[in-house]
């Protein structure tokens, strides 16, 4: 028997038109730790979903290529089959029952039971639980990690680190676990907790378990892995032993994604000097996108990009300023302090927002295009309103709304049957244009646009970006674009700020070489000598 | 065939079955010696009587507070208005409008408190609304005994205090709307013009409200609360306002109901009153989070049609009164269907 | 530091048990006014404990499975009543009669419970209101069967059961044949107080069943499903099936509970008994300090005693206090509904607060 644990061969996967994995080959030896690195959307999660046989893969037409587990070809059609075959997964979000103890979670649905006669009549599920045996098993699993968790402690009362350990203990407690996938296991841990976890991971590997370690903390990946694989645009761009590479090489292998159909513009250095908004010590409590301490100045007339990996907090900035999530700190707009936590105030002061959650926050899907476009302007600036009885009755002027809607439909080339078509029936790109139209209808002085091209087709992407660019050049609107697509931002922005762990890691002109941005994304300071790279 | 299937899928099979059932009742009626004209007339009277109570569902559904199982709260405000107007000996139209005028402040206060409560229990509104309705009815039972009403037509004769369970309004403002501009053709056909006009007026007012800035905001809160919040709308304020409106319509609705019915029913009378109204609007095509005036009108007509026709037609056919059982099955079946269907509009 | 913690714990204890505490205070206030003798009250409480406990116990299992208060227990009660009607028609009396009624009602309750569970799986997150309406809906079907089909499709021979028109069951069915047959099958009288020992034994056996059940694999799965459906699902627990089983067990137990309840009372109120059963069982459980998400055996027994103490005492207290017994009656109706309303509000309120708290925890240190 060879020592190869997992071999994935020629994995190709498309979601409809969009190819997310191209002929990926991956091997994992027994006892090896493989660091899997890549930007969001590079294909890491799709690759893992294929390995686990998640239903979403088959609902979207399956995949090409073959998977061998210890030399045998496998194809899982449900995650439960993967679990049975000895593949364990530890997610970023905890998959634990909050009111259960560590023991109960570690042996969840694999409890040791005692026989009684009712089992004969009603089946296995009426066997009683054998608590001492369950506890023994749990303690043994915890011991393998060499960490100290109280096995009788309730999960909801545990510190996050212990929850993470409980989850790993659960995976390795399964007798046949031979492959463990850790998806950003350290994201929620403190530094000391992370260190203990890395030690535990190494120990598991030395016991013969193969580990795929996914993380955005490059330093960590370098430290723990034997081998590193970098994915970009669904292809492997780097595969090296950890000892033979460095952060800079990994970072530049990650960034620089190709984007088709982008309007190429002559690089044009514009200089701005009047600040329109200054942000000091901003924190935003947005789940999954926490902003911790952001200091940033936005200049009048510029297009500023805000980039960063998912979960680092880039999306929280705009949402916090717009009052959609609890926030604190000092924000000044046009020389006046801007109170936070009330969505009405920024809108009234002339700050517009296109949300990243288009279908959730951006639109009323079951209303017509016209109302969607006019709604905010009507509520905030009382546009499209006819007043009667001295302003007591504020009547919605449907005719004015239609007229305005027609203008925007022409201006943004929204493809639709008529102004009152339900937004739900439009394509993603056209829905995004409706969102932009609503923001434009507010006639904002400063406009935040979050993830403008997420989930829309290539043609619409460049159209939407052109629209943002034009608005800036023609009306002079200051625009802040928040996006995961670095190359798209580099095409339209003047400057790009990169957010890492809730803070601004650095701001660079858009024309800077993309590998510099790559380093910032990873939380390493750019243009610093090798070896003294500091990790944020 | 496919088109018929699609049509039924669009309106939902319970609705289709019930509409067909009602239609067949009307077709069968002449064969079992039930007069169509008096049936239609009865249906119209009941339609006018109950319409506004069904209308009281709309604001809360539109703002995302769910079906207004707490309707009894509004009804209680209306009952207070009605009993106080009788205490004041207000007669005719004056009496009717006095009752409404008095009930308004009660409805606003009750609705405000009720709205504040519902804002704190988002997601569990319907069950809590049901029990708030029930407990307020039970609480008012105590109050009807204790409140210092004096009018001898209202209080128990022997004790001299405590309100009767049913109080006739015939001599005060019974039928003022029903008889206003009413149309009588022959012996059996009667159109309660005034009541229907008043219902139409209420519909018009509500329609107008939903065409104002505030009304649009309220609909948006129900359709997508996250969207509304991002557009600078205070969600809780809108929800409270919608609850006040629903409570107010409930109060006016019960007064209209009483003028047509001829009696005020106190104590446990309003207990189950929410259910027929909820069922009616669902029958009309509303869902847990979307309701329109069309739903109200169609639903009230279908529901009241069934209630009018089943006793007369089925009784003549089977020589037995199954109307109560049919009412229970139809109305609760309809609510059940909506509950298992209704998809929560929930982002993220 | 220690002191503050202690004070905090006391406050937490009071807050957690606020409902039973209020009821104890109410009783302390009302019992002397009502002028009932102690022995009367004790006898009355023992009877009511025997009568109601089993019904209340049937509510526990769906709570473990996170499905809230099973308002659909009235389905089981109806199944039990159909069993009783048939048994009294066939004139099977005594304990065999009760057993036969239970046997007849079991398949009915299983079918109804299955239906209820399947429907509730379609209305996740709205289980309570759905099961509540389902209760009304099935009540309609029950009336259809009992009022029109019994004596028509289902042969009923005893004329005293059938309405004068020839079919349909009368409003009240006399259960003299099985009245108290379980309660006093082992006669025991202490100081003139009759103890319904037979029923107590059944209740005790069943309480042990619940304790045992919690320790089975199925019980553990139910707890897991009740706390987090998604996690349970990803661990391979059949979520829908587990939920369905919990409702099914509850429905079957409610059928037995209703049979025990009615053998104590001795008359079946054909068209009302089941509705009250659900209402009072739920109110009693909540009065005992249970919540929508958590209920224990002590909650059941404390609840039954406190709720029914209030029930017995309040009409007389109302009479002596204000001179109107009616007032006390309405008061107890108000309390029955009010306590459910309050419990539901507290539950939703707490849930909203916990969600906010969980979000803050997730944020970590800023």
Model description:
The complex is a heterotrimer of chains A (536), B (348) and C (366). Chain A is of the alpha/beta class. In chain A, helix 14 (369-381) crosses helix 15 (398-411) and helix 14 (369-381) runs parallel beside helix 16 (428-441). The longest helix of chain A has 18 residues, at 458-475. Chain B contains 15 helices and four strands. Chain B has helices at 2-11, 13-28, 36-55, 58-62, 71-87, 92-119, 125-146, 176-179, 193-209, 213-223, 225-230, 235-261, 274-283, 293-318, 323-341; strands at 166-168, 183-185, 189-191, 263-265. In chain B, strand 2 (183-185) and strand 3 form a beta hairpin. Chain B is globular and about 65 Å long. With 366 residues, chain C is mainly alpha-helical. Chain C has a single domain (18-363), classed as ABC transporter involved in vitamin B12 uptake, BtuC. A two-stranded antiparallel sheet of chain C has the order 1-4. In chain C, a hairpin with a 2-residue loop joins strand 2 and strand 3 (193-194). At the A-C interface, helix 3 and strand 8 of A face helix 9, helix 10 and helix 14 of C.
Give the oligomeric state: heterotrimer
Assigned CATH architecture of chain C: Orthogonal Bundle
How far the N terminus sits from the C terminus of chain C, by CA atoms, comes to: 25 Å
The CATH class of chain B turns out to be: Mainly Alpha
Q: Measured on Cα atoms, how large is the radius of gyration of chain B?
A: 20 Å
Report strand % of chain C: under 5%
For the biggest sheet of chain B, the summary is: 2 strands, antiparallel
* Count of β-strands of chain B: 4
């Amino acid at each position: 028997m060879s020592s190869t644990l997992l071999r994935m061969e020629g994995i190709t996967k498309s979601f409809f038109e969009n190819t997310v994995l191209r002929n990926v080959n991956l091997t994992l030896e027994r006892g090896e730790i493989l660091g899997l690195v890549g930007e969001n959307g590079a294909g890491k999660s799709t690759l893992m979903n294929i390995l686990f046989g998640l239903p979403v893969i088959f609902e979207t037409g399956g995949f090409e290529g073959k998977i061998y587990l210890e030399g045998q070809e496998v194809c899982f059609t449900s995650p439960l089959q993967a679990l049975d075959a000895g593949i364990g997964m530890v997610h970023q979000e905890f998959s634990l029952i909050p009111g259960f103890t560590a023991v109960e979670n570690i042996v969840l649905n694999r409890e040791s039971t005692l026989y009684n006669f009712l089992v004969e009549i009603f089946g296995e599920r009426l066997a009683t639980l054998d608590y001492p045996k369950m506890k023994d098993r749990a303690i043994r699993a915890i011991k393998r990690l060499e960490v100290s968790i109280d096995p009788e402690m309730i999960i909801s009362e545990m510190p996050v680190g212990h929850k993470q350990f409980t989850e790993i203990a659960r995976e390795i407690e399964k007798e046949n676990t031979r492959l463990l996938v850790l998806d950003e296991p350290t994201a929620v841990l403190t530094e000391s907790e992370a260190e203990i976890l890395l030690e535990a991971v190494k120990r598991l590997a030395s016991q013969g378990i193969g580990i795929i370690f996914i993380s955005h903390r490059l330093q960590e990946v370098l430290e723990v892995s034997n081998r590193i694989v970098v994915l970009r645009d669904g292809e492997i761009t780097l595969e090296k032993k950890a000892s033979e590479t460095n952060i800079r090489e990994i970072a530049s292998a990650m960034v620089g994604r190709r984007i088709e159909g982008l309007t190429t513009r002559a690089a044009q250095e514009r200089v701005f000097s009047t600040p329109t908004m200054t942000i000091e010590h901003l924190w935003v409590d947005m789940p999954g996108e926490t902003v911790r301490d952001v200091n940033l100045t936005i200049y009048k007339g510029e297009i500023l990009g805000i980039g960063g990996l998912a979960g680092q907090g880039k999306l929280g900035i705009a949402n916090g300023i717009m009052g959609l999530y609890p926030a604190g700190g000092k924000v000044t707009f046009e020389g006046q302090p801007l109170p936070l936590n009330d969505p009405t105030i920024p809108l009234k002061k002339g700050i517009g927002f296109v949300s990243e959650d288009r279908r959730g926050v951006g639109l009323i899907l079951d209303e017509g295009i016209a109302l969607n476009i006019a709604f905010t302007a009507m509520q905030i600036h009382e546009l499209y309103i006819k007043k009667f009885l001295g302003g007591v009755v504020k009547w919605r002027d449907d005719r004015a709304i239609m007229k305005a809607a027609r203008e925007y439909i022409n201006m943004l080339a929204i493809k639709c049957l008529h102004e009152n078509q339900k937004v739900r029936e439009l394509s993603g790109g056209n829905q995004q244009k409706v969102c932009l139209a609503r923001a434009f209808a507010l006639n904002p002085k400063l406009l935040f646009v979050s993830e403008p091209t997420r989930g829309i087709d290539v043609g619409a992407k460049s159209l939407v970006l052109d629209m943002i660019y034009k608005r800036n050049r023609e009306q002079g609107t200051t625009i802040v674009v928040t996006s995961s697509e670095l190359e798209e931002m580099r095409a339209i922005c003047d400057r790009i700020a990169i957010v890492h762990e809730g803070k601004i890691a650095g701001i660079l002109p858009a024309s800077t070489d993309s590998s510099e941005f790559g380093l910032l994304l990873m939380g390493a300071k750019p243009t610093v000598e090798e070896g003294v790279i500091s990790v944020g | 065939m496919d088109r018929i299937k699609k049509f039924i899928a669009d309106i939902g099979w319970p609705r289709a079955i019930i509409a067909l059932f009602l239609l067949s009742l009307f077709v069968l009626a002449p064969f079992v010696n039930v007069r169509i004209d008096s049936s239609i007339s009865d249906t119209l009277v009941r339609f006018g009587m109950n319409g506004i109570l069904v209308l009281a569902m709309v604001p809360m559904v539109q703002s995302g507070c769910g079906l207004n199982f707490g309707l009894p709260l509004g009804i209680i405000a209306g009952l207070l208005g009605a009993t106080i107007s009788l205490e004041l000996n207000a007669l005719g139209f004056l009496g009717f409008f006095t009752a409404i005028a008095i009930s308004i402040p009660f409805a606003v206060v009750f609705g405000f408190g009720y709205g504040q409560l519902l804002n704190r229990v988002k997601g569990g509104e319907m069950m809590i609304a049901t029990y708030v309705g029930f407990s307020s009815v039970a609480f008012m039972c105590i109050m009807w005994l204790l409140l210092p009403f004096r009018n001898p037509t209202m209080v128990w004769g022997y004790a001299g205090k405590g309100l009767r369970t049913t109080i006739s309004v015939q001599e005060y403002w019974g039928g003022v709307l029903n008889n206003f501009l009413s149309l009588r053709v022959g012996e059996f056909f009667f159109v309660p013009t005034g009541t229907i006009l008043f219902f139409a007026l209420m519909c018009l007012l509500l329609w107008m409200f939903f065409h104002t800035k505030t009304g649009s905001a309220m609909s948006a809160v129900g359709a997508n609360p996250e969207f509304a919040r991002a557009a600078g709308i205070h969600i809780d304020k809108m929800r409270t306002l919608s609850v006040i409106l629903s409570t107010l319509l409930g109060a006016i609705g019960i007064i209209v109901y009483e003028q047509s019915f001829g009696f005020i029913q106190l104590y446990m009378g309003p207990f189950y009153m929410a259910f027929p109204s909820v069922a009616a609007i669902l029958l009309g095509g509303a869902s847990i989070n979307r309701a329109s005036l069309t739903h109200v009108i169609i639903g009230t007509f279908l529901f009241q049609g069934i209630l009018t026709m089943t006793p007369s037609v089925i009784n003549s056919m089977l020589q037995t009164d199954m109307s109560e059982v049919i009412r229970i099955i139809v109305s609760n079946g309809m609510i059940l269907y909506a509950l298992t269907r209704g998809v929560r509009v929930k982002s993220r | 530091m220690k002191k503050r913690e202690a004070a905090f714990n006391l406050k937490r204890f009071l807050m957690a048990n606020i409902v039973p505490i209020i009821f104890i205070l109410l009783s302390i206030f009302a019992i002397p006014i009502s002028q009932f003798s102690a022995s009367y009250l004790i006898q009355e409480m023992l009877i009511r404990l025997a009568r109601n406990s089993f019904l209340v116990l049937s509510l526990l299992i769906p709570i473990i499975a996170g499905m809230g208060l099973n308002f659909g227990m009235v389905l089981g009660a109806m199944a039990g009543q159909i069993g009783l009607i048939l048994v009294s028609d066939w004139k099977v009396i005594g304990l065999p009669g009760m057993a036969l009624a239970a046997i007849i009602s079991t398949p009915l309750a299983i079918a109804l419970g299955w239906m209820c569970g399947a429907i509730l799986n379609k209305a996740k997150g709205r289980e309570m209101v759905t099961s509540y309406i389902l209760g009304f809906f099935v009540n309609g079907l029950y009336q259809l069967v009992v009022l029109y089909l019994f004596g028509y499709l289902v042969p009923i021979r005893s004329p005293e059961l059938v309405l004068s028109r020839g079919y349909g069951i009368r409003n009240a069915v006399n259960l003299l044949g099985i009245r108290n047959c379980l309660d006093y099958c082992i006669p025991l009288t202490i100081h003139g107080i009759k103890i319904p020992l037979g029923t107590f034994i059944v209740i005790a056996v069943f309480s042990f069943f619940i304790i045992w059940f919690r320790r089975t694999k199925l019980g553990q799965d139910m707890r897991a499903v009740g706390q987090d459906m998604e996690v349970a699902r990803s661990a391979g627990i059949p979520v829908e099936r587990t939920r369905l089983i919990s409702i099914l067990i509850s429905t079957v137990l409610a059928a037995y509970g209703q049979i025990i309840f009615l053998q104590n009372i001795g008359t079946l109120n054909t068209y009302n008994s089941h509705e009250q059963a659900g209402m009072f069982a739920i109110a009693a459980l909540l009065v005992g300090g249970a919540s929508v998400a958590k209920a224990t055996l002590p909650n059941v027994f404390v609840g039954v005693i406190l709720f029914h103490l209030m029930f017995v005492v309040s009409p007389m207290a109302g009479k002596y206090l204000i001179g109107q017994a009616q007032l006390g009656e309405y008061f107890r109706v108000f309390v029955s509904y009010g306590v459910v309303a309050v419990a539901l509000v507290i539950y939703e309120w707490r849930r909203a607060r916990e969600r906010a708290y969980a979000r803050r925890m997730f944020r970590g240190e800023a």
